[in-house]
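Structure tokens please, single chain.
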Amino acid sequence: MSRALARRLEAVRPSATLAMTARAAELRKSGRHIYAFGVGEPDFPTPEFIRDAAARALATSSHYTAVSGTAELKQAICERTAQDRGFTPTPERITVSVGAKHALFNLAAALVDPGDEVLIPAPYWVSYPEQVRLFGGEPRIVETSAANGWRMTPDELARSLTPRTKALILCSPSNPSGAAYDAEELRALARVLAEQSDCFVIVDEIYAELVYDGFRHASLTTVAPELADRIIVVDGVSKAYAMTGWRIGWSIAPPAVAKALDKVQGQSTTNPTAVAQAAAAAALRGPRDEVRHMVESFAARRRRMVEGLRAIPGMACDLPRGAFYAFPDVTGLYGIRHGDKTLASAEDVALWQLDVCGIAAVSGEAFGAPGHIRYTYACSESAIDEALALLKSAVERAER
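Here you go.
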């Protein structure tokens, strides 16, 4: 009897963001001070009123809920979606999951057959292509450019669609680039999809509240209601409410897809944690003061991070529209010598800055954008200032 692991795992790469976090943790244990610019996690505590709701729920929320989530949380999602996104889903379209990542995994399981193509604009979140591969699908990467703000154009989309295209995954605002599509840009993409394809469109909106300088997030469902029967929105409470560890996300999908997701989840996790669902409902229905405060703080940190990166010789960085990542071009640092090695890739630069400066950030190769590094500014301004001062000094002293 063979004891080999399933062959499907051979196509899947481990998460680069988690790998960098683990490496940084090892250095921290050895006594090094590490600047954690790697993982996209708000450094704010979960607001107190949300924690209070969870404490109250402990008295009663100790049993299974419906597989796809409680009626209370689904109704709260409907209400908040109507207020923030401009469309009102019905509860039967909602599947509450163990985080937005789990919602995306469920969608891959429910939609992707071996040989199906899924379009993924680059740069992309590291898990999108790996989840597609896990179910035998083929990620078809759509190359975009920094010159166009990392936003996919209608022509790029049209050239990438084939009869095998099962879905498009669109993240706005984007992890890792912070790129975001305005309403007119989404309408232009929708026109291509309406004319040339009947594929599903999976829109990851987990960073929708985190936008800056007056930019207004637009939801594809509102912009292109003619595509509503094949748009799937993925969202959650992790980023906007500083609730990453609570693990509550959801999808809003056409009823047939939602029913399939219920089937998938019913044979895997069953319901998300009951207490966390109660906390998420409180978050969605509660005051927005702390959310606004976090956004204001991220906006200030964003300016500080981008200006600091731009001040480093050999680095170029655009100002992102949303999320909490800066994504500079680091090719100007190639050629720096470190020991017996010459830096020749963004991964080399990322490992060099970790070794020399204690800065943990993730190289762009993992996101489909060689030559770039993702730095999160979900950290204090003092940490940003200290780390970038160290990096600037290291670059200026470096041997080439």
